[in-house]
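Marked as duplicate of an earlier ticket. Keeping the data here for the record.
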Amino acid sequence: MSTRKRYWLMKSEPDDFSIDDLARVGTEPWTGVRNYQARNFMRDGMRVGDGVLFYHSNADVPGIYGIAEVASTAYPDPSQFKKSSKYYDEKATEETPRWFLVDVGYVRTLAHPIPLAEIREHSAALGEEFALIRKGARLSVLPVTAAQWKLLLSLEKKR
């Protein structure tokens, strides 16, 4: 198994949970992911210390607003077991959980958010495998290569 640092982009609606909320609490479980591919990224791909681009989706200006890091190994999402939760899954049991999460820890808020429109201007350099700007891609957890991470964060300094 590789111990190389990996990078990710995780989307959150700022009305539900923003980079400011993460800054306030420090570390937060990334609950409510109900897409198998995104779940698999968290369960099988993420390691403590991996870098996370914190992306505000469904916002006035969608884009990258901060940096976080993976703060735990994957564990079952407790919201799947709570009947009162909007993320309840009647097919999930404690013995055979279906949904997993990681804790995400705050690193910093960007000095200047990087809007999606600006990210799209760099689509050629980011490559066609960069799922955020691919048509029809709606995952809330996406892998980011080290080169994409470096390019995206360089956009913050150009403002």
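See parent ticket for discussion. Helices lie at 19-25, 36-45, 116-120, 123-126, 146-157.
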